[in-house]
Amino acid sequence: MQLCQRLEQILENLRPAFSREATYQWFILLAWGVVLNSQPSAITSYVNALGLTESYYHQALHWFESKAFNVKGLTLGWSKWVSQHENLYRIKEKRVYVGDGIKVGKEGRKMPGVKRLHQESGNVAKPEWIRGHYFNALSVLVGAGKACFALPLVLRLDDGIKSKATAKEGKKGSKKEKTTLVTKMGELCTTYAEAGSYVILDAYFACGAVLKSFRQNALHLITRVRCSTVAYAPFSSVPTLRGKGRPRLWGSSIKLESLFALVEDFPTAKVWLYGQQVSVSYQCFEFHWDSPHQLVKFVLTQLPNGQRLILLSTDLCLTGPEIIAAYGLRFKIEVTFRQLIHLLGGFAYRFWLKALPTGVTFS
Fold first, then answer.
1. How many beta carbons lie within 10 A of that of residue 171, not counting itself?
2. What is the pLDDT of residues 233-256, one digit of tens each?
3. Where along the chain do its domains lie?
4. Which domain of life is it from (predicted)?
């Protein structure tokens, strides 16, 4: 009974996202249909779980094309409610978000947005190339004590379908930066994450464009960079010496991988990592990377199994062990993806072209 009341309270907070009462009531019914459903995920299954007759099928189907709400407004309302949760996981009293991308295999040749996607994985069961959809996802960490979970805020199809803003980029004379999956993830984080929070991303999203957008929106990034990364030492100019040309901005370049030569002299610390406490060797350095005016903190890390990582944090106040432990929380979103796929059937969907004639079968 308490669970039912709690769900009703959550759904009530999403009422402002709907402009019509009937659309909102159908949203409540379909949400309960998802909860009560024990059959393969489909609108028919949701209608059956609610005990409705087949005459309500087309009304339920029409809800997904309703103009009385938009998905962005609904997800923003959900994000706002979650941000007020009392059990949010925090680092130094700041919220922690985790973002990543997921590729979902889809074989429909007439399905919108399906593209040929490359998969980089050490799992031999995964093919190198698939056809499907690419989603960017953002979650917030919730929990109590050492246990925490990645609660999804938004999953957005970011590849294969061109928006109006993306379509205008091809025009001549446009000075806008090229939109990529990385910049779309940065835009997703700045839209849904609260200012002053930490966002943990994979090394794929570690680039200057993301750092620039995060600084403009007062967000801190914690990520991993490649071992071949080159950073720059702070440049100190001599007032009495002035050469020809533009004043120098960057200091000498430093290959971060070369700093592992001193790994035997690195300090060690006990860190709670991947569900257990381990001893890691680390060393912190503050260098320039994406901007000659902003420093970032690099943490050279060696795990007990000998694996070496280079982590990056835009918050210079965090210690090395705190950055290592925070990046270890990134795998929480992988657990969320697994539950979404195998437990909830979150990607058991099919898109149809609006221009596709009804009643046509494909052999």
1. 8
2. 987 765 656 667 777 788 889 999
3. 1-69, 224-237+246-328
4. Bacteria
